[in-house]
Amino acid sequence: MLYRAFGKTGKMVSAVGMGANRFKPEVTNTADGVEQCARLVVQAATLGVNFFDSAAAYSGGKCEEILRLALRQVDGKRYICGKSSSHQEKTQDAVLRHIECSLKNIGIDYFDFYYMWSIKSMSQYQEIMTLGGPYEGVTAAKERGLVKHICFSSHTSAQDTVRIIQDGAFEGVLLSYSLLNFRENNNAIETAQRSGLGVAVMNPLGGGIIPQNAELFKPAVMNDDIDTNDAALKFIYAHTAVSTILCGVENGLELAADVKSLSATDRKADSRRTYVAANLGAFSEFCTGCGYCNDCPAGIPISALMTAYNQTRFKSDTFIYNRTIPELIKRGNFFRALEGHTEFKNSVNPCINCGKCEKVCTQRLPIIDRISKIYRWVEVSCASLFDRKKRLGSLISTQYHRVGFYTAGGYTAFIIKLYKKLLGGLPFQTYVFDSNPLRWGDEFSDGFVIRSPEEIPELNLDVVLISNYVYSDQIYEDLTVRFPAVNVQRLHTDKDVPWVF
Fold first, then answer.
1. Residue 228, helix vs strand vs coil
2. Is residue 266 situated within a structural domain?
3. How many domains are contained in the chain?
4. How far is the C-alpha of 144 from the C-alpha of 147, rounded, in Å?
5. In CATH, what number is assigned to the domain containing residue 398?
6. For 275-313, what is each residue's pLDDT tens digit?
7. Averaged in consecutive runs of 10 residues, what is the pLDDT profile of the chain (501 residues)?
8. What's the CA gap between 77 and 49, in Å, rounded?
């Protein structure tokens, strides 16, 4: 295994880091399955992996349990990462409690690296840094020895990532960097390197897009590379700014392949980046993000829409949100790429068909047709603020006095925040439920206490809203069978994409 310094932290981390969010729900829903996942973590450590990425909500809420079982069997130094979401842990105290709970669940004394998780905009970053906010919670944890190094994970633009790095509040960053987006994100990781931050890379294979479109990425493969995956990992690590690459693996074969790619010095490392940049050109019918179309008379953020539309041009059979319908996967990939960059007030297409954008497009893209298709997706996917307000209003009547939300994760935190934004306040008593007994009694967002589902019948709720997207069908089936007299409703329909990623 190759190792590299994580910025200025003094930690030498493995080239392969293990992401713990790809364990499948059909595996993690049994005790034997959890033990099976733990054995994979132990196998990774045996192969030299010492960087393990976690979050309480990962792998259906079983991530921390898996790590607890695995770490009992791991000798030698290992570095554990934790995370908190500003959508959920909004205050200093909430972050502290979240850290304490996660440490207890995993069975460790401190996190080596702790991330302000999934920053998607500068406004969210500013909320994190406010007086008494999440950042002060993690700094307080660091003062108590519960956290060694404070980091952030970025899902915002490369430009905003650079701005956050330059503020100097963090020692490390987790961001996306791959054959898909290296041109647009190169400046961010080089800024991190100049600033002394450790860089962990997520989605090195583009969430499965790269291996599923291997022929398109074949120009990145050099002599002696095993395959496209091998070339993709070596390309990322060829950039000396990269400290570790988070590989989400589901089995031992995938793990062994990733480790093999990064267990020997790449003899072509010095020339690989230049080779890829020269040979992996812009794909046909893909937006290059040049921005020439941005001066739209109707105010449409055309460049952002077209760049996100690129994701729909790739073959993608896997989707991390537990859906398999190809069209839904395509729309999901589009909205996921767009999140944090723009939002839709409604699903009415504002395009005036002036053609100005198509005249300046260097790729000669059918922009007008694509915009029309996008707004149809907005309507059918319930992706606009107008449609979401209408949906929430129909599911949670103004006449309701007692409302339950299931599960106690980022989806519920987002929906509660969205309800306040669109409908004003919460004019009902709110209850939050989760199936994970390790979380019962803990405080959730806005001070709500996480409860056991067994309490649902005795609370006389008007409705229990399943806000979770990934496991909504399983949760609905479970609750309606156990509590047939309870009004259980799903937030998402079969045509929706997630309201939050």
1. helix
2. yes
3. 3
4. 8
5. 3.40.50.720
6. 999 988 666 677 877 778 988 999 999 999 998 998 888
7. 97 94 81 92 96 89 92 92 90 93 95 94 93 96 98 91 97 94 91 98 87 89 94 97 92 94 94 92 71 91 92 76 86 89 93 94 90 97 97 94 94 93 93 90 87 96 95 93 96 93 81
8. 10
Q: Are residues 140 and 43 in the same domain?
A: yes
Do the domain assignments include residue 329?
yes
Q: Where are the beta strands (DSSP E) in 130-177?
A: 147-154, 172-176
Count of C-beta atoms within a 10 Å radius of residue 144: 11
Last residue of a domain, one of 381, 403, 430: 381
Same domain, 44 and 70: yes
Tell me if residue 384 falls in helix, strand or coil.
Answer: strand
Q: Look up the domain containing 76 and give its range.
A: 3-279
> Do you know the residue count of the chain?
501
pTM over 0.85: no
Residue/partner pairs of 160-164 with CB below 8 Å, 24 or more apart: 160/121, 160/122, 160/125, 161/185, 161/188, 161/191, 162/187, 162/188, 162/191, 163/122, 164/119, 164/122, 164/125
For residues 357 and 302, is the Cβ–Cβ distance under 8 A?
Answer: yes
